[in-house]
Amino acid sequence: MAARVNIGILGAGTVGSAVHDLIAAGHLARFGVDAEVVKVFTRTPQGKPRYETSPELFTTDATEVTRHPDVDIVVEVLAAGGAEDLRIQKEWVVDALRHGKSVATANKALLVAHGAEIWTTARESGRAVRFEACVAGGIPIISPLTQSLSAERPAAVYGLLNGTSNYILTEMSQHGRSYEDALASAQALGYAEADPDADVSGRDAEAKLLLLSSITFGTRLQPGAIHRKGIERIHAIDFLYAARKGRSTIKSVALARSVDGALEAMVTPMIVPERHPIAGIDGVTNAVFFKGQVSDGGASEGDDWDYVFAGPGAGGGATAVAVLGDVHELTARSGDTPFLPVESIVSEVDSVLPEDELRASFYVRFVVRDQSGIVGDICQVFGEKQINVAEIWQLEHGADELESLLGAGAGGVAPEEILPFVITLEQTNVGQLRQALARIAQKDYVLAEPLWLPIWKA
């Protein structure tokens, strides 16, 4: 006999409508689940799909979903919004849990901001919260990390967690487009919002990484607690240096790993060697890499294992599929202990490395006024800060490439007066690098703020 489950949906936008469509099309029936949507909350029901034929399905009062006597599972797929919106959404999720509903959510910002209260309420209410759709869209990663790979001791989790940024960087790399042109293309194709800040600044990837860190390492971090840098200042010229001199490309990487008992975490564009699998993942595709160590006390103990999960990271369809997977899991586990009590995960790390203590080799791109002695002067500053220079990279540039750098702060300077070049640095920490660059920025030959990026280390 098919399991009967009634669904209430908070949100009727792109994802909410896609979830409703999949349920109505019977996508869970092949797993023996007879699912039906019985109530949908939206502030603007008029004009929504199905409103004309079934207006009784819709409500402008969220509690008619969270307290509906027939609803078994609440699907929360609301747009995140600002702090007040998140507070209100948290109240609705908590209300659903207290009224005996389990919750499947795609709202990563909500869990990052209010996860502690939500997990506590779920535990106290004997209900479950599933959030597969919060990280990497349609890629199944939460379940593998918490179930299939739970026997492994985590060493690192990292990847490409924002399809918009990956698309923009791919366009810049493969077609030589400017950041502005690549962003406009992403917006035209629907990959980027009219206000793309959350994507290009790294905030979206940061929220996803904080969730991954919580289930991988047991950390409880808030936005702003880790190093974050966006892709806005990446120039097409940086891909030329990375490819021609470094046999590398540039990817916006979200990374969390254990280093001597501390968590090293960051979201930043990185110089990634072409030989690394992450370098070949292009377009809007997302990918998550997990490195673990088997700890069974046998011959395999201590062996490193790498797992890769890749696929569509965004869009209503991909996210809806992940949400439906959570609905199926909640239905299958309806009589079990609630799935994934996040608050009870034991921490695998003792502390979080402060931003200034993050260590890496670095790529630093300079744009200066062409005059003698500049490279030596810059290298002297690095030496005074005990930072070793690895290589100096310089390419020949045409007038168009040089002119394109004028927007980086060198207005009014003729192309023939501009000298771009790159210095790569041996291992140092972010604090030392910033101190050195602050000194260099005071030099009168500097035409633009230097761009610095970590170089991927295995």
General description of the model:
The protein is α/β, with parallel strands linked by helices and 458 residues long. The chain has 14 helices and 17 strands. Strand 5, helix 4 and strand 6 form a beta-alpha-beta unit. Helix 12 packs across helix 14. About 1% of the residues have low confidence.
Rounded to the nearest angstrom, the radius of gyration is 24 Å
Low-confidence stretches: 298-302
Q: Shape, please? A: elongated
Total number of helices = 14
Keywords:
14 helices; about 35% helix; about 25% strand; about 450 residues; seven-stranded mixed β-sheet; alpha/beta; six-stranded parallel β-sheet; elongated
Secondary structure elements and their pairing?
Elements: E1 3-10, H1 14-24, E2 33-41, E3 58-59, H2 63-66, E4 73-76, H3 83-98, E5 102-105, H4 108-125, E6 129-130, H5 142-148, E7 152-160, H6 163-175, H7 179-188, H8 197-200, H9 203-217, E8 227-228, H10 236-244, E9 248-259, E10 262-273, E11 285-294, E12 304-312, H11 316-332, E13 351-352, E14 359-369, H12 374-384, E15 389-393, H13 399-404, E16 418-429, H14 430-441, E17 451-455
Parallel strand pairs: 1-2, 1-4, 2-3, 4-5, 5-6, 8-10, 10-13
Antiparallel strand pairs: 7-9, 7-11, 9-10, 11-12, 14-16, 14-17, 15-16
